[in-house]
Design a protein that fits this description.
Largest sheet: none
Number of strands: 0
Order of helices and strands: HHHHHHHHHHHHH
Number of domains: 2
Number of helices: 13
CATH topology of the largest domain: Aldehyde Ferredoxin Oxidoreductase Protein, subunit A, domain 3
Oligomer: single chain
CATH superfamily of the largest domain: Aldehyde Ferredoxin Oxidoreductase Protein, subunit A, domain 3
Low-confidence stretches: none
Helix content: 40-55%
CATH class of the largest domain: Mainly Alpha
Structural class: mainly alpha
Shape: elongated
Amino acid sequence: MAFECYEKGLLTREHTDGLELTWGNAEAGIELLNKMIRKEGIGAILEKGTKEAARILSEKIGKDFSPFRTDFKGAPAIAHDYRWSWIKTLNQTVSSFAYSGQGSAYDYVADPEMGVSKKLNLFDNVSAADMVRLAMIRRDFEDCTGLCLFNLTGVSNVIDLQVKMISTVVGWDFNRDEALQLGERIVNLARLFNLRRGLTPEDDLDIGSRQIDAPSAGAGKGHSVRPHLKQMVEDYYGAMGWDRATGNPNKSTLKKLGLGELAI
């Protein structure tokens, strides 16, 4: 964000402690990172993340920095630009674990085990909600095993293999349905945790423009998820068995998962 704002003239060397934040200036990037670690100068602002930094810089400098945010709900972006896939974008939007790959990879690989027989349209705002639900349930179970998504994606019958592994190691009478229910319980528990600490549907849509506007190049060029995202989030709530207006898990959903006493 700082480099783009410098290129566009919102930041000057006066604001950046003399650093020339031009694209490719690795030395300036390293020094800026050190300033963020030490909370020195502009680093003391940028280390707060792009949402808060944009607010502070807008007030301090008198220019609007908000269009250059790259965060989801204030959480910093990881090392990926997901605008080439609306499934990925929705996944990040509704993730309960900040900006993370909580879902799987149904936009570039099929998953017959979960009923996904072929790769999907990258910019399909209708099917995205169901795919994110399936991906989150599977991924949250698999994360409990300690195995990496990169090792599991595309492996035939990998859920059954993990179930067999767990049953063999710990001696449980554990099956595939229980594994996926475990994943679904985690998704719901994480949502309940965040709701109890003030999360709202408006927060789910508090996303930096750089993440939801169409990129100027690449596979996502000309495809902006912004006009569709609110409906996609509501569709995801519905797919999860949550209230479409509030995002609260329905009592019937929680009861099915053995979590009825946690209903809000």
